[in-house]
Each structure stands twice: as structure tokens, then as C-alpha cells.
Amino acid sequence: MKKILVATSVIGLLAASCTPKAVATATTTTNPIKSTEAQIAQGKLAFENSCGKCHKLPDPASHTAVEWVGIMNSMAPKAKLTEEQHQWVYDYIVSAK
Ligand code: HEC
User: What digits encode the pLDDT tens for the residues 49-61?
Assistant: First the structure.
């Protein structure tokens, strides 16, 4: 579980680290990128509302956290998620496993 959260924040970091400033900030605080519970709740809502339209709602436990990265990369545009929603849905899925 801890490992998964670390992996998630690394992805968040990669996404947010376009400027050197973002990296500098990340090193001074404990974990600024991790989604909050409210964001994960948003992710759950978006998941339940968007991901069952074309097929049955997938089971978060049916794929590994790493597989979900690729799946979300192909499914988020299909579900017309914003970048933030993409991240939140991913964080919800890995937290629900
Ligand atoms: C516009 C229709 C559509 C939406 C919305 C959609 N999907 Fe899919 N999904 C598909 C289709 C078509 C496939 C099968 C073909 C493929 O893999 O591209 C698929 C396949 C999948 C698979 C199986 C992939 C595999 O490799 O086994 C998963 C898991 C999945 N979707 C998850 C999601 C999630 C999570 C969301 C919400 C973010 C979502 N889908 C939204 C159309 C959609």
C-alpha cells in the first residue's frame, strides 16, 4: 500500500515537474503532490460516472498499479477526463485495490 502511494506521488511529481521550481518545492515539504482524500473522492465519482459507459465498470483489483497507468492513459481521453480527473481517478483506483 505504501509502495503504491509512493509510485503515485512519483507520477504526480513527473507530471508537475516541468519547472525546476516545482522540484525544489517538492524536496522541502513532505509530500505535496499526493492527492487528498477529497480528490480521491472526486476520482471515485468520475470513475463511477465515466468508466462504466462503454463497458462494465472495471474492478480496480483486476490490474496492477503499473498496468493502470497504461490503461488510464488510453481510457482517460475516451472518458473525456481532465488531466486532474485523470490523476484523481488513477489515485482512487490504486487506493481502492
Ligand atoms: C468511449 C468509451 C469508453 C470509455 C468512456 C471508457 N472505456 Fe475503457 N475501454 C473501451 C474500449 C473500446 C475498450 C476495449 C478496447 C481497448 O482496450 O481499447 C476498453 C477497455 C478497457 C479496459 C480493459 C483493458 C485491458 O487491457 O484489459 C479497462 C480496464 C478499461 N477500459 C478501463 C476504463 C476506465 C478506468 C475508464 C474511465 C476512465 C474507461 N475505461 C472508460 C472504451 C471506453
Answer: 999 999 999 999 9
